[in-house]
């Protein structure tokens, strides 16, 4: 694919920030860049449309965050393992499940599990606000 083709097929002006970037999603308010997509995946609260406490990634005409159902987004954001609604990473797993898998592989004591003495550490790491960040750091450092 040439740079011109990539630009024509993938780059759009983000409806949220106005920056020209590769499109991560096309929602009711328009094309969304990756930065705005990941930011939207962290907005939680009571949807003004359906009054449900959940992820509010979309925006209505007034710019108020709403849930995917009220915005007409057909893609779901539920983790295939734990059912958490939020940012999904590889294999449609949430940040926490992805980090748990990574830590499980790295800290495997040879029995297929994490040594009991390291389980409190794993629990503390999984309770972080942004497990995706730690997941990338852990994976990168394990390659060194």
Question: Which overall shape is indicated by the principal axes computed on the Cα atoms?
Answer: globular
Helix content: 25-40%
Strand order of the largest sheet: 1-2-3
From N to C, what is the helix and strand string? HEEEHEEEEHHHH
What quaternary form is this? Answer: single chain
* Total count of domains: 2
Largest sheet: 3 strands, antiparallel
Q: SS-based structural class?
A: alpha+beta
The counted number of beta strands is: 7
Kindly estimate the percentage of residues that lie in beta strands according to DSSP.
Answer: 15-25%
Count helical runs.
6
What would you report as the Rg, rounded to the nearest angstrom?
Answer: 18 Å
Poorly predicted regions: none
**What is the rounded distance between the termini?**
32 Å
Mean pLDDT: 88
Describe the model.
By secondary structure, this protein is of the alpha+beta class. The protein has two domains: 3-71, no CATH class; 90-142. The chain is built from six helices and seven strands; from the N terminus they run αβββαββββαααα. The protein has a three-stranded antiparallel β-sheet with strand order 1-2-3. α4 (95-106) packs parallel to α6. The two termini are 32 Å apart. The mean pLDDT is 88.
């Amino acid at each position: 694919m040439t740079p011109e083709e990539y630009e024509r097929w993938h780059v759009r002006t983000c409806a949220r920030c106005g920056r020209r970037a590769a499109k991560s999603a096309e929602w009711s308010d328009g094309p969304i860049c990756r930065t705005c997509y990941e930011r939207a995946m962290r907005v939680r609260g009571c949807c003004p449309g359906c009054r449900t406490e959940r992820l509010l990634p979309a925006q209505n005409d007034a710019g108020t965050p709403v849930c995917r159902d009220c915005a007409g987004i057909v893609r779901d954001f539920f983790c295939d393992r734990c059912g958490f609604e939020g940012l999904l990473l590889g294999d449609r797993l949430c940040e926490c499940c992805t980090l748990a898998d990574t830590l499980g592989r790295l800290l495997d004591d040879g029995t297929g599990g994490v040594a009991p003495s390291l389980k409190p550490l794993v629990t503390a790491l999984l309770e972080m606000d942004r497990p995706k960040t730690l997941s990338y750091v852990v994976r990168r450092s394990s390659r060194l």
